[in-house]
Design brief:
By secondary structure, this protein is an alpha+beta fold. It has one domain. It has helices spanning 5-14, 57-63, 106-115, 126-137, and strands at residues 34-37, 52-55, 68-70, 77-79, 92-94, 101-103. A two-stranded antiparallel ribbon has the order 1-2. A two-stranded antiparallel sheet has the order 3-4. Strands 5-6 form a two-stranded antiparallel sheet. β3 (68-70) and β4 form a beta hairpin. The longest helix is centred in the C-terminal third of the chain and has 12 residues, at 126-137. It starts with a helix and ends in a 15-residue tail after the last helix.
Length: 152
């Protein structure tokens, strides 16, 4: 089933037009961000607005049909971040230079790991380079946690 345009627009506006996982701004993308099923359709998830999140293509692909990940600190399996039930700023912060998402809870760390939010495996570190340019241009980061506003 195709998600109706009005529901897609609601998801986009609710997410403030940025990926709800890595905070990639849609305004910097050459195409619209994708609609992600938080609880995957392949596992019985529905096209309900409360099961949808705005995601960049990369996060959507990395999320795939996973609902859990491994916290690299505790080696425990935990549920991935759910933007409908949890606040981003309770699980993640930006590094001082705003180029890396840092998980500060088991959920945050497992999500960073599973979705590879910092793209650490790529030798060219494309994500960090892009984020550096976005910071210089004033497009990034968008703070949800006032404790981090001093990074600007």
């Amino acid at each position: 089933m195709t998600i109706p345009n009005n529901m897609q627009e609601l998801v986009r506006k609710r997410a403030n037009f940025k990926c709800e996982y890595c905070h990639y701004p849609e305004s910097l993308s050459t195409s619209p961000l994708t609609i992600d099923h938080i609880y995957p359709q392949s596992l019985g998830g529905f096209d309900d607005v409360n099961n949808l999140a705005l995601a960049c293509r990369r996060c959507n692909e990395r999320h795939y049909n996973f609902t859990v990940g491994i916290d690299p600190e505790t080696q425990q399996e935990v549920a991935l971040f759910n933007p409908r039930q949890q606040q981003w700023c309770e699980h993640f912060i930006w590094s001082a230079d705003a180029t890396q998402v840092i998980g500060i809870t088991s959920t945050g760390r497992a999500t960073c790991n599973r979705l590879d939010l910092n793209d650490l495996r790529r030798s060219d570190r494309f994500i960090q380079k892009s984020r550096q340019l976005w910071v210089k241009g004033g497009f990034h980061p968008s703070f949800e946690d006032p404790r981090q506003e001093n990074l600007q």
